[in-house]
Protein backbone atom coordinates (compact mmCIF):
# COMPACT_ATOMS: atom_id res chain seq x y z
CA UNK A 1 0.00 0.00 0.00
CA UNK A 2 1.09 3.57 -0.55
CA UNK A 3 2.37 5.40 2.49
CA UNK A 4 1.50 8.92 3.54
CA UNK A 5 4.43 11.25 2.80
CA UNK A 6 4.06 14.97 2.15
CA UNK A 7 7.66 15.23 0.91
CA UNK A 8 6.47 13.46 -2.23
CA UNK A 9 5.45 16.94 -3.37
CA UNK A 10 9.10 17.65 -4.14
CA UNK A 11 9.08 14.85 -6.70
CA UNK A 12 6.03 16.32 -8.36
CA UNK A 13 7.36 19.87 -8.37
CA UNK A 14 9.17 19.80 -11.77
CA UNK A 15 6.07 18.47 -13.51
CA UNK A 16 3.90 20.95 -11.69
CA UNK A 17 6.10 23.90 -12.66
CA UNK A 18 6.31 22.87 -16.30
CA UNK A 19 2.66 22.09 -16.80
CA UNK A 20 1.53 25.11 -14.80
CA UNK A 21 3.64 27.37 -17.00
CA UNK A 22 2.18 25.79 -20.12
CA UNK A 23 -1.39 25.49 -18.95
CA UNK A 24 -2.14 28.29 -16.49
CA UNK A 25 -0.59 31.25 -18.31
CA UNK A 26 -2.36 30.52 -21.63
CA UNK A 27 -5.55 29.63 -19.81
CA UNK A 28 -5.52 32.97 -17.97
CA UNK A 29 -4.92 34.71 -21.30
CA UNK A 30 -8.00 33.00 -22.67
CA UNK A 31 -10.07 33.91 -19.61
CA UNK A 32 -8.85 37.47 -19.94
CA UNK A 33 -9.91 37.76 -23.56
CA UNK A 34 -13.22 36.08 -22.94
CA UNK A 35 -14.53 38.92 -20.76
CA UNK A 36 -13.19 41.84 -22.78
CA UNK A 37 -13.80 43.63 -26.04
CA UNK A 38 -11.02 45.10 -28.14
CA UNK A 39 -10.92 47.48 -31.08
CA UNK A 40 -7.22 46.94 -31.69
CA UNK A 41 -4.28 49.04 -30.44
CA UNK A 42 -4.17 46.86 -27.35
CA UNK A 43 -7.11 48.72 -25.84
CA UNK A 44 -9.52 46.51 -23.99
CA UNK A 45 -12.96 47.13 -22.52
CA UNK A 46 -14.83 45.10 -19.95
CA UNK A 47 -17.45 42.97 -21.60
CA UNK A 48 -18.56 40.70 -18.77
CA UNK A 49 -20.20 37.48 -19.76
CA UNK A 50 -21.57 38.91 -23.00
CA UNK A 51 -19.43 36.78 -25.28
CA UNK A 52 -20.46 33.59 -23.52
CA UNK A 53 -24.11 34.44 -24.00
CA UNK A 54 -23.56 35.36 -27.63
CA UNK A 55 -21.67 32.12 -28.36
CA UNK A 56 -24.14 29.87 -26.58
CA UNK A 57 -27.04 31.46 -28.44
CA UNK A 58 -25.38 31.52 -31.85
CA UNK A 59 -26.62 29.09 -34.48
CA UNK A 60 -23.11 28.74 -35.79
CA UNK A 61 -21.74 27.39 -32.49
CA UNK A 62 -24.70 25.10 -31.94
CA UNK A 63 -24.35 23.68 -35.44
CA UNK A 64 -20.60 23.08 -34.99
CA UNK A 65 -21.24 21.47 -31.60
CA UNK A 66 -23.90 19.24 -33.11
CA UNK A 67 -21.57 18.16 -35.91
CA UNK A 68 -18.86 17.52 -33.34
CA UNK A 69 -21.07 15.25 -31.23
CA UNK A 70 -22.28 13.45 -34.34
CA UNK A 71 -18.71 12.87 -35.50
CA UNK A 72 -17.52 11.63 -32.10
CA UNK A 73 -20.56 9.37 -31.66
CA UNK A 74 -20.12 7.88 -35.13
CA UNK A 75 -16.44 7.10 -34.76
CA UNK A 76 -16.93 5.62 -31.27
CA UNK A 77 -19.76 3.43 -32.54
CA UNK A 78 -17.59 2.11 -35.36
CA UNK A 79 -14.13 2.01 -33.82
CA UNK A 80 -14.94 0.33 -30.50
CA UNK A 81 -16.81 -2.75 -31.85
CA UNK A 82 -14.46 -3.06 -34.83
CA UNK A 83 -11.44 -2.83 -32.53
CA UNK A 84 -12.82 -5.54 -30.25
CA UNK A 85 -13.54 -7.85 -33.20
CA UNK A 86 -10.05 -7.43 -34.68
CA UNK A 87 -8.40 -7.89 -31.28
CA UNK A 88 -10.39 -11.08 -30.62
CA UNK A 89 -9.39 -12.61 -33.93
CA UNK A 90 -5.69 -11.81 -33.65
CA UNK A 91 -3.20 -14.63 -33.00
CA UNK A 92 -1.93 -14.70 -29.39
CA UNK A 93 1.55 -16.09 -30.02
CA UNK A 94 4.05 -16.57 -32.77
CA UNK A 95 5.96 -14.76 -35.47
CA UNK A 96 2.99 -12.84 -36.82
CA UNK A 97 2.12 -11.05 -33.57
CA UNK A 98 4.83 -8.33 -33.67
CA UNK A 99 4.32 -7.93 -37.42
CA UNK A 100 0.58 -7.37 -36.94
CA UNK A 101 1.15 -4.95 -34.07
CA UNK A 102 3.71 -2.86 -35.94
CA UNK A 103 1.59 -2.67 -39.10
CA UNK A 104 -1.50 -1.78 -37.11
CA UNK A 105 0.24 0.93 -35.12
CA UNK A 106 1.73 2.53 -38.23
CA UNK A 107 -1.19 4.86 -39.08
CA UNK A 108 -1.00 6.40 -35.61
CA UNK A 109 2.60 7.49 -36.16
CA UNK A 110 1.93 9.45 -39.31
CA UNK A 111 1.81 13.23 -38.78
CA UNK A 112 -1.79 14.41 -38.79
CA UNK A 113 -1.43 16.75 -41.73
CA UNK A 114 0.15 13.90 -43.73
CA UNK A 115 -2.88 11.76 -42.84
CA UNK A 116 -5.07 14.48 -44.33
CA UNK A 117 -2.91 14.80 -47.46
CA UNK A 118 -2.73 11.05 -47.83
CA UNK A 119 -6.50 10.68 -47.77
CA UNK A 120 -6.82 13.60 -50.13
CA UNK A 121 -4.54 11.88 -52.63
CA UNK A 122 -6.33 8.56 -51.99
CA UNK A 123 -9.82 9.93 -52.64
CA UNK A 124 -9.26 12.35 -55.52
CA UNK A 125 -11.57 11.53 -58.43
CA UNK A 126 -9.64 10.23 -61.48
CA UNK A 127 -6.30 10.30 -59.61
CA UNK A 128 -6.85 8.61 -56.25
CA UNK A 129 -7.25 4.87 -55.85
CA UNK A 130 -10.54 5.12 -53.96
CA UNK A 131 -11.86 8.02 -56.01
CA UNK A 132 -11.12 6.21 -59.25
CA UNK A 133 -12.55 2.92 -58.02
CA UNK A 134 -15.82 4.46 -56.81
CA UNK A 135 -16.37 6.77 -59.77
CA UNK A 136 -15.01 4.89 -62.75
CA UNK A 137 -15.33 1.22 -61.74
CA UNK A 138 -18.45 1.16 -59.58
CA UNK A 139 -20.04 4.19 -61.19
CA UNK A 140 -20.91 5.85 -57.90
CA UNK A 141 -20.83 9.62 -58.10
CA UNK A 142 -18.33 10.49 -55.38
CA UNK A 143 -16.71 13.88 -54.97
CA UNK A 144 -15.71 15.01 -51.53
CA UNK A 145 -15.34 18.64 -52.52
CA UNK A 146 -18.93 18.88 -53.78
CA UNK A 147 -21.09 16.52 -51.73
CA UNK A 148 -21.44 16.92 -47.96
CA UNK A 149 -22.35 13.25 -47.54
CA UNK A 150 -19.21 12.07 -49.34
CA UNK A 151 -17.13 14.45 -47.24
CA UNK A 152 -18.66 13.10 -44.04
CA UNK A 153 -18.16 9.47 -45.02
CA UNK A 154 -14.57 10.26 -45.93
CA UNK A 155 -13.65 11.96 -42.65
CA UNK A 156 -15.31 9.18 -40.64
CA UNK A 157 -13.56 6.43 -42.62
CA UNK A 158 -10.31 8.36 -42.31
CA UNK A 159 -10.64 8.48 -38.54
CA UNK A 160 -11.54 4.78 -38.42
CA UNK A 161 -8.43 4.09 -40.49
CA UNK A 162 -6.32 6.31 -38.27
CA UNK A 163 -7.40 5.30 -34.77
CA UNK A 164 -9.17 1.91 -34.68
CA UNK A 165 -5.74 0.36 -34.04
CA UNK A 166 -5.63 2.14 -30.69
CA UNK A 167 -8.71 0.21 -29.58
CA UNK A 168 -7.28 -3.00 -31.08
CA UNK A 169 -3.97 -2.67 -29.25
CA UNK A 170 -5.60 -1.82 -25.95
CA UNK A 171 -8.05 -4.73 -26.15
CA UNK A 172 -5.29 -7.04 -27.28
CA UNK A 173 -3.24 -6.08 -24.22
CA UNK A 174 -6.22 -7.01 -22.05
CA UNK A 175 -6.76 -10.30 -23.87
CA UNK A 176 -3.19 -11.60 -23.65
CA UNK A 177 -3.27 -11.09 -19.89
CA UNK A 178 -5.95 -13.79 -19.52
CA UNK A 179 -4.34 -17.04 -18.29
CA UNK A 180 -4.90 -20.16 -20.42
CA UNK A 181 -6.47 -21.89 -17.41
CA UNK A 182 -9.56 -19.68 -17.78
CA UNK A 183 -10.15 -20.92 -21.32
CA UNK A 184 -9.54 -24.53 -20.31
CA UNK A 185 -12.06 -24.23 -17.51
CA UNK A 186 -14.57 -22.74 -19.92
CA UNK A 187 -13.99 -25.61 -22.33
CA UNK A 188 -14.60 -28.21 -19.62
CA UNK A 189 -17.83 -26.45 -18.69
CA UNK A 190 -18.82 -26.49 -22.36
CA UNK A 191 -19.16 -22.71 -22.55
CA UNK A 192 -20.25 -21.24 -25.88
CA UNK A 193 -17.96 -18.70 -27.64
CA UNK A 194 -20.43 -15.99 -26.65
CA UNK A 195 -20.27 -16.82 -22.93
CA UNK A 196 -16.46 -17.02 -23.12
CA UNK A 197 -16.56 -13.50 -24.52
CA UNK A 198 -19.19 -12.24 -22.12
CA UNK A 199 -17.85 -13.74 -18.88
CA UNK A 200 -14.09 -14.10 -19.44
CA UNK A 201 -12.85 -11.76 -22.15
CA UNK A 202 -15.09 -8.74 -21.72
CA UNK A 203 -14.51 -8.32 -17.95
CA UNK A 204 -10.74 -8.50 -18.56
CA UNK A 205 -11.01 -5.84 -21.24
CA UNK A 206 -13.15 -3.51 -19.16
CA UNK A 207 -10.36 -1.27 -17.85
CA UNK A 208 -8.53 -1.01 -21.15
CA UNK A 209 -11.77 -0.41 -23.00
CA UNK A 210 -12.53 2.51 -20.70
CA UNK A 211 -9.08 3.94 -21.44
CA UNK A 212 -9.74 3.41 -25.14
CA UNK A 213 -13.10 5.16 -25.05
CA UNK A 214 -11.67 8.00 -22.95
CA UNK A 215 -8.73 8.57 -25.29
CA UNK A 216 -10.85 8.27 -28.40
CA UNK A 217 -13.43 10.65 -27.00
CA UNK A 218 -10.85 13.29 -26.05
CA UNK A 219 -8.92 13.08 -29.29
CA UNK A 220 -11.89 12.92 -31.63
CA UNK A 221 -13.57 15.79 -29.82
CA UNK A 222 -10.44 17.91 -30.26
CA UNK A 223 -9.73 16.81 -33.83
CA UNK A 224 -8.51 19.59 -36.08
CA UNK A 225 -5.67 18.90 -38.50
CA UNK A 226 -6.87 15.84 -40.41
CA UNK A 227 -10.33 17.08 -41.44
CA UNK A 228 -8.96 20.58 -41.97
CA UNK A 229 -6.36 19.37 -44.45
CA UNK A 230 -8.81 16.99 -46.11
CA UNK A 231 -11.94 19.10 -46.48
CA UNK A 232 -11.10 22.51 -45.00
CA UNK A 233 -14.44 22.26 -43.18
CA UNK A 234 -16.40 22.12 -46.41
CA UNK A 235 -18.20 21.76 -48.70
CA UNK A 236 -19.89 24.83 -47.24
CA UNK A 237 -19.74 24.34 -43.49
CA UNK A 238 -20.76 20.71 -43.57
CA UNK A 239 -17.60 19.31 -41.96
CA UNK A 240 -16.69 22.34 -39.83
CA UNK A 241 -16.09 20.67 -36.49
CA UNK A 242 -15.58 22.67 -33.26
CA UNK A 243 -11.80 23.09 -33.50
CA UNK A 244 -11.96 24.12 -37.14
CA UNK A 245 -14.61 26.70 -36.34
CA UNK A 246 -12.61 27.95 -33.36
CA UNK A 247 -9.44 28.43 -35.39
CA UNK A 248 -11.47 30.22 -38.06
CA UNK A 249 -12.80 32.69 -35.49
CA UNK A 250 -9.54 33.13 -33.55
CA UNK A 251 -6.84 33.16 -36.21
CA UNK A 252 -8.93 33.84 -39.30
CA UNK A 253 -11.24 36.62 -38.18
CA UNK A 254 -9.15 37.51 -35.12
CA UNK A 255 -12.30 37.89 -33.00
CA UNK A 256 -10.46 37.28 -29.75
CA UNK A 257 -13.36 37.76 -27.34
CA UNK A 258 -15.83 35.33 -28.90
CA UNK A 259 -13.02 32.88 -29.69
CA UNK A 260 -11.87 32.89 -26.07
CA UNK A 261 -15.40 32.45 -24.75
CA UNK A 262 -15.92 29.59 -27.19
CA UNK A 263 -12.60 28.04 -26.12
CA UNK A 264 -13.70 27.95 -22.50
CA UNK A 265 -17.11 26.47 -23.30
CA UNK A 266 -15.45 23.91 -25.56
CA UNK A 267 -12.90 22.96 -22.92
CA UNK A 268 -15.60 22.73 -20.24
CA UNK A 269 -17.62 20.27 -22.34
CA UNK A 270 -14.56 18.08 -23.02
CA UNK A 271 -13.65 18.20 -19.36
CA UNK A 272 -17.12 17.31 -18.17
CA UNK A 273 -17.51 14.26 -20.38
CA UNK A 274 -13.93 13.10 -19.71
CA UNK A 275 -14.46 13.49 -15.98
CA UNK A 276 -17.40 11.11 -16.15
CA UNK A 277 -15.22 8.51 -17.90
CA UNK A 278 -12.36 9.12 -15.49
CA UNK A 279 -14.51 8.58 -12.39
CA UNK A 280 -15.86 5.36 -13.87
CA UNK A 281 -12.31 4.25 -14.60
CA UNK A 282 -10.79 4.99 -11.19
CA UNK A 283 -13.78 3.38 -9.51
CA UNK A 284 -12.77 0.16 -11.29
CA UNK A 285 -9.16 0.62 -10.27
CA UNK A 286 -10.08 0.88 -6.63
CA UNK A 287 -11.97 -2.40 -6.60
CA UNK B 1 -8.06 -20.85 -37.29
CA UNK B 2 -7.79 -19.97 -40.97
CA UNK B 3 -11.17 -18.28 -41.01
CA UNK B 4 -10.37 -16.28 -37.91
CA UNK B 5 -7.11 -14.88 -39.28
CA UNK B 6 -9.04 -13.46 -42.22
CA UNK B 7 -10.27 -10.52 -40.12
CA UNK B 8 -6.82 -9.16 -39.14
CA UNK B 9 -5.61 -9.67 -42.71
CA UNK B 10 -8.52 -7.69 -44.15
CA UNK B 11 -8.08 -5.02 -41.50
CA UNK B 12 -4.36 -4.65 -42.19
CA UNK B 13 -5.06 -4.55 -45.94
CA UNK B 14 -7.48 -1.68 -45.30
CA UNK B 15 -4.78 0.12 -43.29
CA UNK B 16 -2.12 -0.40 -45.94
CA UNK B 17 -4.14 0.74 -48.98
CA UNK B 18 -3.87 4.53 -48.48
CA UNK B 19 -0.22 4.12 -47.42
CA UNK B 20 0.50 2.10 -50.56
CA UNK B 21 -1.15 4.78 -52.66
CA UNK B 22 0.95 7.52 -51.06
CA UNK B 23 4.17 5.57 -51.68
CA UNK B 24 3.13 4.70 -55.26
CA UNK B 25 2.36 8.36 -55.99
CA UNK B 26 5.76 9.43 -54.72
CA UNK B 27 7.46 7.40 -57.46
CA UNK B 28 5.32 8.82 -60.26
CA UNK B 29 6.10 11.83 -62.43
CA UNK B 30 3.71 14.79 -62.32
CA UNK B 31 2.77 14.04 -65.92
CA UNK B 32 1.76 10.50 -65.11
CA UNK B 33 -0.29 11.58 -62.09
CA UNK B 34 -2.27 14.14 -64.07
CA UNK B 35 -2.62 12.13 -67.27
CA UNK B 36 -4.71 9.33 -65.83
CA UNK B 37 -5.10 6.43 -63.45
CA UNK B 38 -2.36 3.84 -63.03
CA UNK B 39 -2.17 1.28 -60.25
CA UNK B 40 1.64 1.01 -60.35
CA UNK B 41 4.12 3.75 -61.31
CA UNK B 42 4.61 3.39 -65.08
CA UNK B 43 7.66 5.60 -65.39
CA UNK B 44 9.37 4.90 -62.09
CA UNK B 45 11.13 8.08 -60.95
CA UNK B 46 13.13 9.24 -57.96
CA UNK B 47 12.95 12.90 -58.93
CA UNK B 48 10.53 13.76 -56.10
CA UNK B 49 12.94 12.37 -53.53
CA UNK B 50 15.92 14.04 -55.19
CA UNK B 51 14.04 17.34 -55.08
CA UNK B 52 13.55 16.96 -51.33
CA UNK B 53 17.10 15.92 -50.52
CA UNK B 54 18.64 18.76 -52.53
CA UNK B 55 16.43 21.57 -51.23
CA UNK B 56 17.49 22.89 -47.79
CA UNK B 57 13.97 24.12 -46.88
CA UNK B 58 12.74 20.57 -47.35
CA UNK B 59 15.40 18.58 -45.55
CA UNK B 60 15.75 21.18 -42.79
CA UNK B 61 12.06 20.65 -42.13
CA UNK B 62 12.85 17.06 -41.19
CA UNK B 63 15.88 18.02 -39.11
CA UNK B 64 13.84 20.65 -37.26
CA UNK B 65 11.00 18.25 -36.55
CA UNK B 66 13.29 15.51 -35.28
CA UNK B 67 15.20 18.00 -33.10
CA UNK B 68 12.20 19.35 -31.21
CA UNK B 69 10.62 15.91 -30.94
CA UNK B 70 13.79 14.46 -29.39
CA UNK B 71 14.13 17.43 -27.05
CA UNK B 72 10.52 17.06 -25.98
CA UNK B 73 10.84 13.32 -25.40
CA UNK B 74 13.90 13.71 -23.15
CA UNK B 75 12.34 16.61 -21.24
CA UNK B 76 8.97 14.90 -20.75
CA UNK B 77 10.38 11.58 -19.55
CA UNK B 78 12.92 13.22 -17.21
CA UNK B 79 10.39 15.36 -15.34
CA UNK B 80 7.75 12.61 -15.40
CA UNK B 81 9.97 9.97 -13.75
CA UNK B 82 10.13 11.44 -10.22
CA UNK B 83 6.49 12.52 -10.37
CA UNK B 84 5.33 9.05 -11.41
CA UNK B 85 7.42 7.59 -8.60
CA UNK B 86 5.69 9.86 -6.10
CA UNK B 87 2.23 8.98 -7.40
CA UNK B 88 2.95 5.25 -7.37
CA UNK B 89 4.58 5.11 -3.91
CA UNK B 90 3.11 7.82 -1.70
CA UNK B 91 -0.12 9.36 -0.68
CA UNK B 92 0.08 13.11 -0.23
CA UNK B 93 -2.21 16.06 0.13
CA UNK B 94 -4.11 16.64 -3.13
CA UNK B 95 -2.53 13.75 -5.02
CA UNK B 96 -5.74 12.62 -6.68
CA UNK B 97 -6.73 16.16 -7.64
CA UNK B 98 -3.25 16.85 -9.01
CA UNK B 99 -3.31 13.67 -11.07
CA UNK B 100 -6.65 14.57 -12.58
CA UNK B 101 -5.54 18.14 -13.23
CA UNK B 102 -2.52 16.81 -15.11
CA UNK B 103 -4.82 14.65 -17.20
CA UNK B 104 -7.09 17.59 -18.01
CA UNK B 105 -4.21 19.06 -19.98
CA UNK B 106 -4.28 16.01 -22.18
CA UNK B 107 -7.94 16.89 -22.87
CA UNK B 108 -7.41 20.51 -23.83
CA UNK B 109 -8.03 21.12 -27.52
CA UNK B 110 -4.78 22.35 -29.13
CA UNK B 111 -6.87 24.91 -31.01
CA UNK B 112 -7.68 26.60 -27.68
CA UNK B 113 -4.01 27.07 -26.89
CA UNK B 114 -2.68 28.07 -30.29
CA UNK B 115 -2.99 31.85 -29.93
CA UNK B 116 -2.12 32.16 -26.20
CA UNK B 117 0.94 29.97 -26.76
CA UNK B 118 2.05 32.19 -29.59
CA UNK B 119 1.79 35.24 -27.33
CA UNK B 120 3.42 33.52 -24.35
CA UNK B 121 6.43 32.23 -26.23
CA UNK B 122 6.83 35.46 -28.19
CA UNK B 123 6.89 37.47 -24.97
CA UNK B 124 9.65 35.36 -23.41
CA UNK B 125 11.69 35.44 -26.62
CA UNK B 126 11.44 31.77 -27.45
CA UNK B 127 9.27 32.11 -30.56
CA UNK B 128 10.65 30.16 -33.52
CA UNK B 129 13.03 28.02 -31.45
CA UNK B 130 13.14 24.26 -30.95
CA UNK B 131 12.72 24.80 -27.24
CA UNK B 132 9.38 26.58 -27.71
CA UNK B 133 7.82 23.65 -29.56
CA UNK B 134 9.42 21.11 -27.22
CA UNK B 135 8.08 22.97 -24.17
CA UNK B 136 4.64 23.48 -25.69
CA UNK B 137 4.33 19.77 -26.46
CA UNK B 138 5.09 18.89 -22.83
CA UNK B 139 1.56 20.17 -22.13
CA UNK B 140 0.06 16.91 -23.36
CA UNK B 141 3.13 14.63 -23.22
CA UNK B 142 4.09 15.07 -19.57
CA UNK B 143 0.66 14.01 -18.25
CA UNK B 144 0.73 11.02 -20.57
CA UNK B 145 4.28 10.05 -19.53
CA UNK B 146 3.33 10.33 -15.84
CA UNK B 147 0.28 8.20 -16.46
CA UNK B 148 2.18 5.45 -18.29
CA UNK B 149 5.17 5.40 -15.93
CA UNK B 150 2.93 5.33 -12.88
CA UNK B 151 1.20 2.24 -14.28
CA UNK B 152 4.50 0.46 -14.81
CA UNK B 153 5.94 1.53 -11.43
CA UNK B 154 2.90 0.24 -9.60
CA UNK B 155 3.83 -3.23 -10.83
CA UNK B 156 7.18 -3.10 -8.97
CA UNK B 157 6.77 -4.32 -5.37
CA UNK B 158 7.59 -1.83 -2.63
CA UNK B 159 9.89 -4.36 -1.00
CA UNK B 160 12.45 -3.56 -3.69
CA UNK B 161 12.73 0.03 -2.40
CA UNK B 162 12.83 -1.04 1.24
CA UNK B 163 15.52 -3.69 0.72
CA UNK B 164 17.68 -1.17 -1.09
CA UNK B 165 17.41 1.33 1.78
CA UNK B 166 18.28 -1.38 4.29
CA UNK B 167 21.33 -2.19 2.18
CA UNK B 168 22.38 1.44 2.60
CA UNK B 169 21.53 2.80 -0.85
CA UNK B 170 20.82 6.52 -1.05
CA UNK B 171 17.66 7.47 -2.94
CA UNK B 172 19.34 8.77 -6.12
CA UNK B 173 21.65 5.76 -6.30
CA UNK B 174 18.75 3.35 -5.73
CA UNK B 175 16.63 5.12 -8.33
CA UNK B 176 19.26 5.08 -11.06
CA UNK B 177 20.96 1.74 -10.48
CA UNK B 178 18.10 -0.45 -9.24
CA UNK B 179 14.72 1.10 -9.95
CA UNK B 180 15.26 2.40 -13.48
CA UNK B 181 16.53 -0.93 -14.89
CA UNK B 182 13.40 -2.54 -13.47
CA UNK B 183 11.06 -0.23 -15.37
CA UNK B 184 13.10 -0.08 -18.60
CA UNK B 185 10.10 -1.22 -20.60
CA UNK B 186 7.94 1.51 -19.07
CA UNK B 187 10.51 4.20 -19.84
CA UNK B 188 10.78 2.91 -23.40
CA UNK B 189 7.02 2.94 -23.85
CA UNK B 190 6.66 6.42 -22.31
CA UNK B 191 9.41 7.75 -24.57
CA UNK B 192 7.73 6.12 -27.54
CA UNK B 193 4.42 7.82 -26.79
CA UNK B 194 6.06 11.21 -26.26
CA UNK B 195 7.86 10.81 -29.56
CA UNK B 196 4.66 9.77 -31.27
CA UNK B 197 2.43 12.60 -30.07
CA UNK B 198 5.09 15.26 -30.58
CA UNK B 199 5.88 13.93 -34.05
CA UNK B 200 2.28 13.86 -35.26
CA UNK B 201 1.10 17.17 -33.72
CA UNK B 202 1.25 20.08 -36.08
CA UNK B 203 -1.11 22.90 -35.10
CA UNK B 204 1.07 24.10 -32.19
CA UNK B 205 4.34 23.30 -33.94
CA UNK B 206 3.26 25.40 -36.89
CA UNK B 207 1.95 28.28 -34.78
CA UNK B 208 5.14 28.53 -32.71
CA UNK B 209 7.61 28.60 -35.58
CA UNK B 210 8.32 30.81 -38.57
CA UNK B 211 11.63 30.13 -40.29
CA UNK B 212 14.37 28.76 -38.05
CA UNK B 213 12.54 25.87 -36.42
CA UNK B 214 9.85 25.27 -39.02
CA UNK B 215 8.57 21.66 -38.89
CA UNK B 216 8.24 19.45 -41.92
CA UNK B 217 4.47 19.70 -41.63
CA UNK B 218 4.59 23.44 -42.25
CA UNK B 219 6.91 23.02 -45.24
CA UNK B 220 4.43 20.55 -46.67
CA UNK B 221 1.42 22.86 -46.33
CA UNK B 222 3.36 25.64 -47.99
CA UNK B 223 4.17 23.34 -50.92
CA UNK B 224 0.62 22.10 -51.15
CA UNK B 225 -0.76 25.61 -51.43
CA UNK B 226 1.84 27.75 -53.18
CA UNK B 227 3.66 25.50 -55.61
CA UNK B 228 0.45 24.49 -57.32
CA UNK B 229 -0.40 20.86 -57.62
CA UNK B 230 2.80 18.97 -57.00
CA UNK B 231 1.18 15.80 -55.75
CA UNK B 232 4.23 13.61 -56.38
CA UNK B 233 6.44 15.87 -54.28
CA UNK B 234 3.82 16.02 -51.53
CA UNK B 235 3.53 12.22 -51.58
CA UNK B 236 7.30 11.79 -51.35
CA UNK B 237 7.48 14.20 -48.40
CA UNK B 238 4.63 12.33 -46.73
CA UNK B 239 6.30 8.97 -47.30
CA UNK B 240 9.46 10.25 -45.65
CA UNK B 241 7.51 11.31 -42.54
CA UNK B 242 6.33 7.72 -42.05
CA UNK B 243 9.87 6.34 -41.77
CA UNK B 244 10.94 7.73 -38.34
CA UNK B 245 7.71 6.45 -36.80
CA UNK B 246 8.19 3.03 -38.36
CA UNK B 247 11.74 2.80 -36.99
CA UNK B 248 10.73 3.85 -33.48
CA UNK B 249 7.80 1.45 -33.41
CA UNK B 250 10.02 -1.48 -34.37
CA UNK B 251 12.08 -0.93 -31.22
CA UNK B 252 9.11 -1.14 -28.87
CA UNK B 253 7.17 -3.84 -30.75
CA UNK B 254 7.28 -6.28 -27.82
CA UNK B 255 6.01 -3.77 -25.30
CA UNK B 256 3.58 -1.92 -27.49
CA UNK B 257 0.40 -3.74 -26.50
CA UNK B 258 1.12 -3.37 -22.79
CA UNK B 259 2.28 0.18 -23.37
CA UNK B 260 -0.98 1.22 -24.97
CA UNK B 261 -2.75 -0.15 -21.92
CA UNK B 262 -0.56 2.24 -19.86
CA UNK B 263 0.77 -0.78 -17.97
CA UNK B 264 -2.71 -1.30 -16.54
CA UNK B 265 -3.34 -4.94 -17.40
UniProtKB/TrEMBL annotation, chain A:
It is found in: Cell membrane. One of its GO terms (cellular component) is plasma membrane. PROSITE patterns: ABC_TM1. The chain crosses the membrane at residues 9-31, 69-88, 95-112, 118-138, 150-175, 260-281. Residues 65-277 form the ABC transmembrane type-1 domain. Gene3D superfamilies: MetI-like (1.10.3720.10). The keyword Phosphoprotein does not apply. Belongs to the binding-protein-dependent transport system permease family. It comes from Ruegeria arenilitoris. This is Trehalose transport system permease protein SugA. Keywords: Membrane, Transmembrane, Transmembrane helix, Transport. It is a multi-pass membrane protein. The lineage of its organism: Bacteria, Pseudomonadati, Pseudomonadota, Alphaproteobacteria, Rhodobacterales. Its main location: membrane. One of its GO terms (biological process) is transmembrane transport. Pfam families: BPD_transp_1.
